[in-house]
Design goal:
The protein is of the alpha/beta class. The protein folds into 2 domains: 169 residues, Flavin prenyltransferase-like (Rossmann fold); 207 residues, CoaB-like (Rossmann fold). It contains 14 helices and 22 strands. The strands form 6 sheets. Strands 13-12-9-14-17-18-20-21 form an 8-stranded mixed β-sheet, with helices on both faces. Helix 1 runs parallel beside helix 3, helix 1 packs across helix 9 and helix 5 packs across helix 8. The longest helix has 14 residues. It starts with a strand and ends in an 8-residue tail after the last helix. The structure holds cytidine-5'-triphosphate. Cytidine-5'-triphosphate binds next to helix 12 and strand 17.
């Protein structure tokens, strides 16, 4: 994707170094435009080094007299981050007094602004009105700042959103094929408590589910991530809820699913939970002890039977008779697709960064992803299930 990044002179400008680095390593082409004030905070050489590309700081370069028009037309997305109250006011009123603001005026395609300033400046009716002009009249996407402690010593709304969120919003697919769609993704292992300090769980890292949530978001969908015990980190730009047990997971799905179009069930749900949960720590005995387990509900099967017509994708982990077992699960659970993960001597997907999955549709058709990163595998699944193959049950 071709990105023009307008950087203004706010304290949060340092965060943009991380954003540029992230976008560049994800394969995007970035041209940075810095306002004169931004160039006082950070030396443009840093942006040039991280973007591996041109950084423009002057409003008039004799060799590129119409840089603002060229850049405005070239980019797939024009993002201004951090955007100070001053630059927001200028853009809202068509003032074009530097390269960043002239490019803003010349730009007609996708435009995003990430405000960052002191809480009183942000809440000032003048700034609020300018932001309204940007979103209502001029077609900018406005990403509201976070609340928290601000560099000026105040606490409140105005803090630039996280680097991870800026990069994710900017690099969202401009065609947004899943815009308006809403999916729940479950990830990680459930925890079934034995007593206040011990539990039964599994080796699931949550990576595949989290990558699936990111892949759906990237294609424009609204995503709710419901996660249990994980080692991977939860993306700050995706709404998420933490759960512990299978019962809690089922309860969460029952409450939230009516507003969603489907579920990608990557969570590793414990099939059994201790029949009794001790309220106090179980003490050591010399002799052996027996732990009685009771079967948990099949969360996916229950949710699918209670929500006919929505999309349900299960993830099966198999060690033996992989294909036959996965196919059995697909029909027994009454779902649309099953994603088969094989655990064998040559590959263990648990906790790994790579995966090789087989996608099986309810009509029996199947295809293999080959060994790729979990990020690529998640993007492949989303593409095959929802974009290239929207007919339910086909692969
Ligand atoms: N699943 C579920 N509730 C359970 C067990 C599994 O919702 N109690 C879901 C998982 O989230 C996954 C799919 O069912 O999407 C397959 O999970 P898997 O553990 O492979 O299969 P099980 O149904 O538990 O069968 P088995 O453990 O016998 O292989």
């Amino acid at each position: 994707m071709k990105i023009v990044l307008g950087v203004t002179g706010g304290v949060a400008v340092y965060k943009m170094l991380g954003v540029v680095r992230q976008l560049q390593s994800d394969g995007h082409e970035i041209v940075v435009i810095m306002t004169p004030a931004a160039a006082k905070f950070v030396n443009p050489i840093l942006f040039k080094t991280l973007s591996h590309n041109t950084v423009l700081t002057e409003d008039f370069d004799i060799s590129r007299p119409i840089a603002h028009v060229e850049l405005a037309d070239w980019a797939d997305v024009y993002a201004v981050a951090p955007a100070t109250a001053n630059t927001i006011a200028k853009i809202a009123h068509g003032i074009a007094d530097n390269l960043l603001t002239t490019t803003a005026l010349a730009r007609t395609g996708r435009r995003i602004v990430f405000p960052s300033m002191n809480v009183h400046m942000y809440e000032n009716p003048a700034t609020q009105e300018n932001l309204c002009i940007l979103s209502e009249k001029l077609g900018w996407e406005v990403v509201e700042p976070d609340s928290g402690s601000l560099a000026c010593g105040y606490s409140g709304k105005g803090r630039l959103v996280s680097e991870e969120r800026i990069a994710a919003v900017i690099s969202r697919d401009p065609d947004a094929p899943l815009k308006g769609k809403k999916y729940i993704v479950t990830a990680g292992g459930t925890i079934e408590k034995i007593d206040p300090v011990r539990y039964i769980s599994n080796f699931s890292s949550g990576k595949m589910g989290i990558e699936t949530a990111k892949a759906l978001y990237k294609k424009g969908a609204d995503v709710l991530l419901v996660y249990g015990n994980i080692t991977a980190s939860v993306p700050s730009y995706i709404e998420s809820v933490k759960i512990e047990s299978a019962a809690e997971l089922l309860d969460t799905l029952r409450r939230r699913l009516p507003l969603f179009d489907g579920v990608f069930m990557a969570a590793a749900v414990a099939d059994y939970a201790p029949s009794k949960q001790s309220q106090s720590k179980i003490k050591r005995h010399d002799d052996k002890i027996t732990l009685e387990l009771t079967a948990n509900p099949d969360v996916l099967k229950t949710a699918a039977s209670e929500n006919k017509g929505k999309l349900f994708v299960g993830f099966a982990l198999e060690t033996d008779d992989a294909e036959a077992n996965a196919a059995k699960k697909l029909s027994a659970k009454g779902i649309d697709y099953i994603v088969l993960n094989r655990l064998g001597p040559e590959h263990n997907p648990l906790g790994a960064d790579e995966n090789s999955v087989r996608l099986i549709g309810k009509n029996g058709a199947a295809e293999e992803s080959g060994l790729i990163s979990k990020k690529e595998a998640a993007e492949w699944l989303v593409r095959r299930i929802l974009i290239e193959n929207p007919a339910r049950g086909a692969v």
